[in-house]
Amino acid sequence: MIAVAVTSTWYLVLAAVLFGIGLAGVMIRRNPLIMFMCIELMLNAVNLSFVTLANHLGDIGGQTTVLFVMVVAAAEVVVGLGIIVAILRRRPGATADDLSELKG
Amino acid sequence: MDVLRDQNWLLSLGTFLPLAGVVIMLFIPKRDEESAKLVALVTAIATVAVGAYTLVKFDYGQSAKLQFFTSHDWIRPIRATYTLGLDGISLPLYFLSMVITLLVIIYSWDHIPSPGNAKAFLMLMLVLQTGMAGTFVAQDLILFFVFFEVVLLPMYFMIGVWGGEQRQYASLKFFLYTMFGSALMLVSFIALFIVTKGNTAEGGSFAFSWFQAHGPEIAKTTAIWIFAGMFVGFAVKVPMFPFHTWLPDAHTQAPTQGSVILAAILLKLGTYGFVRIAIPFLPQAAVKWAPAIAVLACIGIIYGALGCLAQTDMKRLIAFSSVAHMGFVMLGIATLTPLGVNAAVFGMVAHGLITGMLFFLAGSVKERYHTLEIRRLSGMLKQIPRLGWILGFCAMASLGLPGLAGFWGEFPAIISSWNPAQALVGDGKLDLFRVLTVVAALGTVLAAGYLLWLYQRTAFGEPNPEFTSHGSGAHSLSAAANHGDDHGSDLHDVNTYEWIAWTPLLIAIVVFGVYPQLMFKVIDPAVTNLMRVFGK
Amino acid sequence: MISALVASDFATPHVDYHALAPEIVLGVGICLLIVLDLFLAESRKWLVSTVAGLILLGAVLPVVTLGVIGSDVRSMFDGRYVIDNFSLVLKALFLLSGYVVVLMSSRDTEERTPYQGEYYTLLLTSIMGMVMMASARDLVSVFVALEFLSIPAYMLAAWRKRDSKSNEAGMKYFLLGVFASAVMLYGMSLLYGVTGSTRLVDIGQAVTGTDHLVGVQVLGIVFVIVGFAFKVSAVPFHTWAPDVYQGAPTPITAFLSVASKAAGFVALSLLVFLAFPAAKSVYEPFLWVLAAVTITVGNLLALKQKNIVRMLAYSSVSQGGFILMPLAVAGTGDARTSLRAVVVYLIIYAATNLGAFAVVMAVSRKTHSGEIASYGGLFNYAPGLAAVMTLFLASLAGIPPFGGWYAKFGAFKAVLEARTGAAYTLAVIAAVNTVVSAAYYITLMREMWMKPAPDGDESPVRVPRNLVAALVITGVATLAFGVLPGFSGYGAITGLAGAFGR
Fold it and tell me: Are A101 and C182 within 8 A, CB to CB?
């Protein structure tokens, strides 16, 4: 067994990968709920990145930022789910592509 | 440059007085056409009175200097000032714009074009007047630009709402061409400012005097590019050859009043811009551009003349003749000599009087015959002799008959192109200009050709039976009273409103033709002053 | 970490209540509004809009006193929240445009929705976010202000619950808005990682775009700018704008296209002038391309629109490009001139565009249509509306003497001030685009002035009093900004504390 020290870099890479997965998900998936979940994933990647950097730099600012991001994300969930549910209730199974009354 | 600051409120009053009329007219109900016309007329008369007072108070001994000069801070952050002033070049154009507006409003008294709405029509006319007068007296580049653009919308609506069949197309074309020119012009104005003010964050000014002092110091290549932007802006307005295509459409479709103002004043904004701004501010670039301008001017002369020969519509023919005439004006400017520019300024006024008059006539012919197709018109001298004679007179004036005003715009311009400025000769452009002299002279022959042909076809011969069936005699007496109610009663001779509107123009054409010195002595000192940068 | 925090003695930050007064008035007002709404009988709900308007005007009051009393910069929380000339002017802009939106809304909401209290509460909350944005000088406060203004806006866009178009608008706005926030936040985390601080001025000293970690710096800058590019609907991040504008209630559309967009530009200016001034080699080319593409594509798409709101939406995309222009040369040109150009443009554009939407609302009360063709004959049956609409369109097209020309003038001047080949090219691109934009503004003018009414119905339009007030305010402002642009001195804004190497 080789002991590997888990450095900040690992976390940062993980955050980047999570962010990438979320980004790809938003681009590819068409279900509004899943797209929203992918965005949440991106936000959490951001949180991880902030916390790691704060720890690495020995600065409290990054951790504070994370608290703000978490609160805001919660508010977004409330609003977003409200809107998405309102749509899905009227048109069950609607995807982002189905929403095409407005175009041009 | 020293200026005369006496009575410095006079130009502001003359420029903005029409707007006061517009504000009053806002409160007149739309249905009350008589009051609207009255207010417009009174405003126009008051404006001309202010203009006449300006003429009287103008110090003719010092016409090279800016008079009635006033200068205030306007937009401090960009160093634009509210600066007005009047010298010998501006004076005739400034006054001409006021007179033409008044005459047009008189003419409108019983000629409000379809679809009516005299109130809006006359309001637009007064706004136009402010823009035109302001352009000729502005002595600050930004102020000039604002006034230059103020005329755009009223003219657009005048063509688009009160115009002929193709009015929407014509007005759109007019608008987009002009807009294109002025966008590039604005960019070059700003570039000129930034280049002259040096590297300091603050400093510099948009006043004309600043550019006159510092414009000639700009590096030549930069100056040539800046000149290019201005060239497009002004050349569209003139219009010069490749940019002229909006003009025939706009003229043909515009209501008579619109055509008159367009021909008499609006086109002059472009040539005035060359004389006042582009050439004196960027003399080193002007020398490089002058040959190109001269060539385009001559193409315009010949092209306009040939275009005239091909027209079947009288109004369109007059519009093409404008292209040719403005070609002479631009040729005079391109020589960069005092003689040439004098001729150009004279030509601007003369063209304003004569072509304005021709468009009035075209409008009246259209009103009587309901057509302007040259093929269907004939025997005007028999049917409506007075109108026919006036048309003949104006055609003669337009083709440059010595003794009438048109001659003094064209002849000196051609002469001056034989001997262009020393700087151009030094550039080895003498031969080119001498060739152009010949071409331009040929243009006058063509002008005589198309105008006489037009006159021969419309005025001579027997009246077209198409228009005689209703008889002209029976109605001509009562025409002024009941005009417009049916087709037959339209064939009447010149009526009172038309006489009032036309007489001043006709007199001016003769007076300036017989005694051109009257205007040249006002223009010349100012022109000589501006052209001093080119040496001899 | 934590122990260090506990050990350090916590000093209560100094709070300048006068400086915070606009926010306090708004915050208290919002609470009052919620309570008031609870106790009002259904028949007296109109009071809510009046009170909302008064709250906004009340919040303008301290902005004025702050501007008059002290010209000094008031800085709080270690320079993370700053009240200077720049922020005061923009606070006033946000509050006053909010007031106009309230005027525009009042009649509309009375007739169409039962939830007036909630509507105005959300509107005021969003405005509060913008007011905070003007003072935010820290990544965290910028982010919080941004979400503060965006989240209520998502709900307002989806306000007509039973209208599937409004639903769709809200959802598109929400998904793209949150997505943009996430991208922006990731960029912020990278910038934080490079500099170790969330204060914009600290970032400005560390981010130079040259030395260490240059890749991370570039990525951070680009991500942050992309995030705001969504907010200001710069091409290619503009796709939500026309759909949302068309689907949302018209007053909200006006609000989004003016105030929300302005807030995005405020944030962008803060970043460009405070956080990236040394990294001009990174942000300038990026913004240059963004500006050129935004102006051009916005115009070309606007040309083919048949619906007036979509046309105005694309027009506002292209106007956004003009506001990006001075930012694209902020480093090489004169920074003060650029900043002034952005602020002036935002103010004039706000007056003009709000006015244009007010006319759209007034006309649609009669025609019940958003098609451009439905404007035929307006000059005959409502000459006043046709005239003011012409004023607004001419201002948008940049024709003197209406405000827009001065805004465009400022943008051109700032660009040319840079004196580089790229700057000259951008100016010429923009100049040509001015003509293209004139083409579609003129289409609408032609419809109003020269075409007959499509259904022959020439009965006059009844314009409610509040809407008339909105039209008068915006119309007078548009004209005044054009004729006397230097009058109130707002054009002389150079005071962005901490910027320009001070």
Answer: no
Contact partners for chain A, using 3 or more CB pairs closer than 8 A, are: C
Domain-located, residue B1:
no
The residues of chain C scoring below 70 in pLDDT are 1-10, 70-71, 107-114, 209-212, 486-502
Report if residue B434 sits inside a domain: yes
Across the interface, of C413, C431, C450, the residue whose CB is closest to B161 is C450
Of the candidates C413, C416, C435, the beta carbon closest to that of B176 is on C435
For residue B217, name the pLDDT band (cuts at 50, 70, 90).
confident
How far is residue B56's CA from residue B60's CA, in Å, rounded to a whole number? Answer: 9
- What are the boundaries of each domain within chain C? 13-492
- Kindly identify which residue of chain C lies nearest to residue A84, measuring between CA atoms: C171
- With beta carbons under 8 A apart, name residues in chain C contacting B201: 334, 336-337
Question: Domains in chain B: how many in total?
Answer: 1
Domain assignment present for A61? yes
User: How far apart are the C-alpha atoms of C310 and C258, rounded to whole Å?
Assistant: 15
Per-state percent for chain B, helix, strand, coil, to nearest 5: 75, 5, 20
Q: Which residues in chain C touch residue B75, judged by CB atoms under 8 angstroms apart?
A: 406, 484-486, 491
Which range (B41-50, B129-138, B159-168, B348-357) has the least confidence? B159-168
Query: C-chain residues within 8 Å CB-CB of A63?
Result: 1
Domain count, chain A: 1
A–B contact (≥3 CB pairs within 8 Å)?
no
User: Which chains reach chain C with 3 or more Cβ–Cβ distances below 8 angstroms?
Assistant: A, B
Do C416 and B194 lie within an 8 Å CB cutoff? Answer: yes
> Which secondary structure element, helix H or strand E, spans residue C83, and what is its range?
strand C81-83
Alpha-carbon distance of A82 to C170, in angstroms, equals: 10
Q: Is B80 helix (H, G, I), strand (E, B) or coil?
A: strand
In one-letter notation, the amino acid at residue B425 is: V
Residues in chain B closer than 8 A to C401 (CB atoms)? 146, 149-150
Tell whether the model's pLDDT for residue B55 goes beyond 60.
Answer: yes
- Reported as a single tens digit per residue, the pLDDT across B494-504 is 888 889 889 99
Cβ atoms of B351 and B98 closer than 8 Å: no
Give a yes or no: residue B368 inside a domain.
yes
Per-residue pLDDT reduced to its tens digit, B224-247? 999 999 999 999 998 898 898 999
> Which of C93, C68, C138, C61 has its CA nearest to residue C343?
C93
* Chain Cα centroid distance, residue B6: 29
CA distance B76 to chain C (A): 6
Which residue of C397, C432, C486 is in closest CB contact with B77? C486
| Residues B352-369: tens digit of each pLDDT | 999 999 999 999 888 888
Q: pLDDT tens for residues B273-296?
A: 999 999 999 999 999 999 999 999
| Residue of C172, C185, C198 with shortest CB distance to A99 | C172
Q: Which of A79, A81, A88 to mutate to test the interface with C (most CBs of C within 10 A)?
A: A79
**What is the pLDDT, as a whole number, of residue B479?**
42
Task: Encode pLDDT of B97-109 as tens digits.
Answer: 999 999 999 999 8
What is the signed CA dihedral for C274, C275, C280, C283, rounded to 10 degrees?
Answer: -120
Q: How far is A2 from chain C (nearest CA, A)?
A: 30
Q: Which two tokens stand for residue C471?
A: 């039209």
| Residue A16 within any structural domain of the chain | no
Residues 6+ positions from B26 with CB-CB distance below 8 Å: B123
Q: Which residues of A touch C302 (CB under 8 A)?
A: none
Q: What is the pTM of this model?
A: 0.91
Taking the CA of residue C177 and the nearest CA in chain A, the distance in Å comes to 10
The alpha carbons of chain B give a radius of gyration, in whole angstroms, of 23
For residue B204, the enclosing domain spans 10-534
Q: Which residues span the domain enclosing A41?
A: 31-94
ipTM: 0.91
Minimum mean pLDDT among B177-186, B248-257, B482-491, C204-213: which range?
A: B482-491
Chain C residues close to B149, C-beta within 8 Å: 399-401, 405
Q: Is residue A37 included in any domain, yes or no?
A: yes
User: What pLDDT, on the 0 to 100 scale, is given for residue C210?
Assistant: 67
